[in-house]
């Protein structure tokens, strides 16, 4: 009789005594993993006549897909928008530290900067898988400089740019390197932005609308040309108005092309968005909500002065301001705390809160066939959490890369 070794010599791990998030529901099942992938136990039993090599008691944990943060500016003293000689060491430090917060993949985010910063930093960012060294890197998120000065937020005005006669060539001249870029945030009301959106989309780069004074029709036109994301909904855009709801109106627009879904980021830190606004957005378009941290270098550090690109930021508790102002500038929230706040503020299900930080960002980036779910054959990037959604352990490709000191399995 053939054994599981007839297919692979790799050990089979069986995670028991757990509740797995699968098909939008927590299910009392075991999780099977081999060679870094989620294994279908029926195929193992019936096709291979195999069984587990190692059983692990999860102590009634919730098992959820690893969190994916598509907007994080830095953390733990590292600012991704600074043109240092060794960008990779800073990214590596952040990627290691965020494992304890359940993040298994992320998009290092650069805020509006002079071209020289992009030219130096972007060649040093490489897409890579996660592992014991840290969370995986899915590609860079470039937030600016093609944004509105009226809604610049914490972005320095003198580095903002527009699309002139060259349109996409202007963007290329600014960034120079696009190989590692996954998301670009721009203001859709800018002249010739449609050409740029179309070309970025053609290259497989996600276009996000943000830091903008666009009206609804301009936002809808951008979506028709390929835009699929909204950068931190409500923040740095025109407020909702009943006669023209602006970008916010995309959540319930009837002008979205068939089979296209618009996603939107939310900074669920209790500071950037009132819980009532969070509830409104979630109830209007629950399947598009993507939790992001928008974390800055001060995340994980004591309050005081930190940086966000070219700006000095003062951190006071959970509040982050451009020094000497009351202009919000990113957050110091961690992803796991955003998930817990979202759950509490909206009264949604645990499954919904977890999917907003895993399934939805994966769908946004078109990688749900690999990440963001615990479906069979997907990457075994997952978390063990307790009933209050505190992270107990983090796994990437089936390997434990972080765990609480008091939690062992």
UniProtKB/TrEMBL annotation:
Keywords: Carbohydrate metabolism, Hydrolase, Metal-binding. It comes from the Eukaryota. One of its GO terms (biological process) is N-acetylneuraminate catabolic process. SUPFAM superfamilies: Composite domain of metallo-dependent hydrolases, Metallo-dependent hydrolases. Substrate binds at residues 154, 235-236, 243, 272, 328-330. It is an enzyme of class 3 (hydrolase). Pathway: Amino-sugar metabolism; N-acetylneuraminate degradation. The active site is at 294 (proton donor/acceptor). The keyword Hydrolase applies. Its EC number is 3.5.1.25. Zn(2+) binds at residues 143, 211, 232. The keyword Hydrolase applies. Its cofactor is a divalent metal cation. Binds 1 divalent metal cation per subunit. It catalyses: N-acetyl-D-glucosamine 6-phosphate + H2O = D-glucosamine 6-phosphate + acetate. GO terms for molecular function: metal ion binding; N-acetylglucosamine-6-phosphate deacetylase activity. Residues 63-401 form the Amidohydrolase-related domain. Belongs to the metallo-dependent hydrolases superfamily. NagA family. PANTHER family: N-ACETYLGLUCOSAMINE-6-PHOSPHATE DEACETYLASE (PTHR11113:SF14). This is N-acetylglucosamine-6-phosphate deacetylase. It comes from Chelonoidis abingdonii (Abingdon island giant tortoise). The lineage of its organism: Eukaryota, Metazoa, Chordata, Craniata, Vertebrata. The gene is AMDHD2.
């Amino acid at each position: 009789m053939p054994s599981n070794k007839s297919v692979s010599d790799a050990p089979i791990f069986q995670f028991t005594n757990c509740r797995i998030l699968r098909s939008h529901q927590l299910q009392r099942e075991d999780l099977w993993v081999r060679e870094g992938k989620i294994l279908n136990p029926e195929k193992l039993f019936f096709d291979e006549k195999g069984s587990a090599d190692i059983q692990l008691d999860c102590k009634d944990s919730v098992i959820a897909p690893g969190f994916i943060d598509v907007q994080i500016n830095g953390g733990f003293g590292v600012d991704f928008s600074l043109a240092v000689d060794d960008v990779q060491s800073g990214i590596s430090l952040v990627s290691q530290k965020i494992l304890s917060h359940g993040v298994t993949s992320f998009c290092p985010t650069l805020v509006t900067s002079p071209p020289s910063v992009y030219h130096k930093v972007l060649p040093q960012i490489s897409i890579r898988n996660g592992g014991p060294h840290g969370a995986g890197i899915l590609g860079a998120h470039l937030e600016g400089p093609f944004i509105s000065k009226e809604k610049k937020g914490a972005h320095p005005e003198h580095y903002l740019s527009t699309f002139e006669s060259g349109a996409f060539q202007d963007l290329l001249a600014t960034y120079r390197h696009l190989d590692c870029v996954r998301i670009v945030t721009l203001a859709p009301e800018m002249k010739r932005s449609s050409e740029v959106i179309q070309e970025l989309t053609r290259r497989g780069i996600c276009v996000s609308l943000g830091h903008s004074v666009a009206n609804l029709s301009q936002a809808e036109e951008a979506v028709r040309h390929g835009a699929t994301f909204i950068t931190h909904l409500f923040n740095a855009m025109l407020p909702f108005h009943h006669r023209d709801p602006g970008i916010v109106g995309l959540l319930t627009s009837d002008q979205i092309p068939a089979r296209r879904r618009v996603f939107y980021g939310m900074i669920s830190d209790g500071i950037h968005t009132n819980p009532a606004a969070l509830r409104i957005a979630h109830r209007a378009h629950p399947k598009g909500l993507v939790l992001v941290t928008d974390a800055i270098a001060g995340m994980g550090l004591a309050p005081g002065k930190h940086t966000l690109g070219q700006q000095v930021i003062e951190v006071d508790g959970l509040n982050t301001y451009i020094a000497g102002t009351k202009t919000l500038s990113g957050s110091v929230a961690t992803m796991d705390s955003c998930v817990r706040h979202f759950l509490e503020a909206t009264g949604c299900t645990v499954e919904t809160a977890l999917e907003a930080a895993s399934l939805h960002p994966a769908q946004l980036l078109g990688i749900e066939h690999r990440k963001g779910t615990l479906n069979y054959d997907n990457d075994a990037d997952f978390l063990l959490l307790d009933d209050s959604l505190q992270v107990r352990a983090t796994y990437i490709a089936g390997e434990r890369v972080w765990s609480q000191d008091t939690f062992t399995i």
